[in-house]
Amino acid sequence: MTVYKKTKIFLLLSFPIMFFGQEYNATRFNHVLKQLKLNPSKVKSEFYTEKKMPNAEDSFIAVVPFLKEKIEEDYLLYQNYIVITDAKGEIKSKYLDPAEITSDAIMLEGFTIDTGLYHLNSEVRAFGVIANYRNGSGPNPHSSADISLYYSQGKTLKKVLSQYNVYTSGAEWDMKCNGEFSEDRSVIILDEAKSNGFANLKIKTETTEKIGREVNGDCTEKKTMKTSLRTLKFDKSAYK
Q: Which positions ≥6 away from 57 have C-beta within 8 Å?
């Protein structure tokens, strides 16, 4: 059992897994919106993000979220364009992701582009788009991150993994010390084994659970950890 001062327990949930809100080129941004014929008032510029493609010359990945529907004041539906552009913002490939992204009590905070080494086979290198969420509750904090994987295919893109959760943290506590905390943190590992020509994806998840209790003015912490593995296989058009 570990003993902490009261302020230390909250730090367990105060660091996000992903960073977002990257700087972007305003000229490129405006040119992309013009080509997509999107009303700038429907696009939250703080959600827009872009990143240089490491495996393609003069190519940038951009995520263009736009407001699809406002159901209530705090209940919004977004949809994403995923585009590949040149340095000037001229679109080479574009894809309108059919998946809806909800921002309500669990608020959408932004997107991160992941250009890791997702070599799905000898010809395909995918990239990830991570949606980050968080609520505003003190006694019941919650944050999560979901990843989708895409690769360029001519003038469009192919989506092979949709909104797969890779991070979740939450707690129920008294905002002082006493409470229960949990965190699931996953990494994607490319397996040598293949299904339908694409590498299997091994999902390694580390689950951490903590119980905090106040004892004689200090916080005591009991922590348990476990690791689990899951394999996703490519089936016709996507990983399942």
A: none
Task: For residue 144, give every residue at least 6 positions away whose Cβ sits within 8 Å of its Cβ, in sequence order, or none.
Answer: 106, 132, 133, 134, 165, 167, 168, 169
Tokens of 234: 């490519």
pLDDT in tens, 108-123: 999 999 999 999 999 9
Instruction: For tokens 């106040």, name the residue.
Output: 214
pLDDT at 186: 98
For residue 44, give the DSSP letter: -
Type and span of the H or E element at 240: none
Q: How far is CA 72 from CA 103, 132, 136, in A?
A: 11, 21, 18
User: Tokens for 129?
Assistant: 């788009």
pLDDT tens for each residue of 91-101 = 999 999 999 99
Pairwise CA distance, residues 123 & 208, whole Å: 37
Q: Is 194 helix (H, G, I), strand (E, B) or coil?
A: strand
Instruction: Give me the phi and psi of 7, to 5 degrees please.
Output: -70, -20
* Helix, strand, coil content of the chain in percent (nearest 5): 10, 60, 30
CA dihedral 158, 163, 164, 167 (to 10 degrees): 130
